Each structure stands twice: as structure tokens, then as C-alpha cells.
Fold this protein.
Amino acid sequence: MNDRVQAVRALRKERRLDALLLEDLAQSQYLLEVYRTLAPGEARGVTLVEADALTFVTDPLSAHRLVPHLPPEVAVVEADGDAFVRKGYRFAKELTRLLRKHGVKRLGAFGLRYKEALPSTAKLRLLKENPLLDLAETRTDRELGLLEHAAALADAVFAQITAALQPGITEIGLRARLDELLYEHGADMPAFGTLVSFGENTNQIHAVSTNRPLQRGDLVMLDFGAKVNGIGSDLTRTFVFGKASREQRKLWQAVAEAQQRALESIRAGKQGKTVAAAARNYLVKAGYGDFYCHGLGHQLGLLCGATYLSMSCPRRLREGMVLTVEPGAYTSRGGVRLEDDVVVTRDGCRLLTHAPKPLEVGG
């Protein structure tokens, strides 16, 4: 069995528990190496980990999406149809039967969702440390391959989406075309809700696309990614449609330089806050410190650990981590954000996204 199962079983043994319950589906997928793309709420399931058994409990509507991809040693309990409409304790009935059948008296969990629903014979203990989150700090070769593929799809989509730019196209219309291109290039689905904004709407970090039409001289912000086998890329490009004004050029160049300084700061062993400071300090120096109001980056993967790029993160980067690097500045007249995905190396980082960063697009 893989090192993820071994780590969870080691914690079970260390804490003298009969079993451990994983309530979060993403953690079950990661534990059992089920690399499948699922829309939010599309599938449900929990995993019971014992010394010599693994049991996955799911419902009839989820089974066909997950069960064929489980390792052969995983036993499956399929809940009755009512599990689909139950709230809160969806699999309580099946888990109760399972715990009694296996004689589980001491149960550990990383959440308390089932605390009031399980039999009194099984004492539930909340565990603060989750070994899966530590393992999820870095990517396996398989995960890295999926991330590289997802990043290449995003690059390919950006290379084509600029052809759709014309005066009068709306934010919603461009977003629809961008999502269409993601599917055409082979993505399972967009990695998240695609973000497209024009002009003054780019001053919103995560703007909701509207029917605002594109005009020459507008800033255009595209934030999107491709999801492949459960793992997604994340790319942001901001540019001016037509000729950039002096103000737009200054803002764009400041963000571009801040990103470059952050990229040059990354290497294994560096604290997340130190890398974040490289970008923030430059934006402060350039006069945009008050307009930079979010962290520098987050991890990418099926399951992600607790390290991120932020002024509040003292955790150190590890070789094999995959992170976004996305500084931005958002003034009342518009904002700029530039984002790339990188894998941390021993003495630096390697870019996974390679889409160009034009300041101006279109004549």
C-alpha cells in the first residue's frame, strides 16, 4: 500500500485507535490515489482506515464516478438511496453498522461532522495533526506530470483567446469563449470559475463577469485554469486592449517586476513570508503598497498542505512544492495581476506556465 495509507495507519497505531475516519472526499481521493475530476458536490464518500482494512462508503449516485478507480484492496459499502438527500450525517447509518461489525471502540477523525451521529460504543477523538497534509506539501512525479499538462493547456488557450478580442464583446462573452477553448484543448473542466473583467472592473480581485462591453484602452484581466484528472493549473494575464496609457503602463510594469523579484526569491528552504516580502516590498517602493491586498500565492494539487506565500506564513518551502506566484495591484481605475505556476527546486524554481505576458494586445 502507498506511503499515504502507511502514514495514516502509523498515526492510528500511535494514538491507540481502532480506526481513523476521513470525512473529506478530497482527502479520500488523495489517500487512495484516485485522480478523477469532480465538480463540487458531484460525488460523496468517506474512508475508514483500520490496521488491516480500508473501506470506502459512498452513495449510488457517486459510486460509478469513484468505485471503478479505487485500488482493488479497498472494500466498498454503497449506501441506500436516501443517503443522497440526507443532510449532515449522510453516511451515519452505514458507518454505524460498519463500526459495530468491526468492533471499533476508539475512532479518530480530522473533523467532528459525525460526532453526534455515531454509536456511543465508538468514542470519537478529534485529531489535530493530519499526516496527509504533510505529504501533500510536495508533488509526486505523477502529480507533477498532470500539473505540467494542465499548465500547457492553459498556455495554449491563452495563445488563442486573444483572437476573440474585439470592441463590443462582453466579459461574459469572452469568458464563455475561454471556457469553450479549455474544453476544445482537452481539459476535463475549468479548474475554477473563470474570471474575466474589463476596464474599471479589473480593480476587483475576483470580479464577477458582466455584460460590460470591451472598449479600446481597457485593461483586460483573465484568470483561469485547466483541470485534468483532478488537478488544475492557474494562470492570470492582464493587458491593455489597444494602446496603454502612461498610468496603465506604470502599474503593469510594477506588478511584472514584483512578480519577477518573487520568482527570483523562491528556493527550497525559504520561508513563505520571505518570498511574499520580495513582491510586496517592491510594490510598496513603487507606490502601490496600499493597492496590494492579498497573498502572493497558494499551492496546487489534488490535496494541498499548509504552506503558502504570504506575509503571515513562516513555513519553509520544500523541493517539489507547486505554487502560484500572483502579485497584483488594484487602483480605482483598474487593476493588474500576473500569475504563473512554479515547482520549487533546490536552488530556485521552474516555471510550469509559459504564456507570454504582453502589456498590449490588439491594435
User: Anything to note?
Assistant: The chain has two domains: 3-132, 141-361. The mean pLDDT is 95.
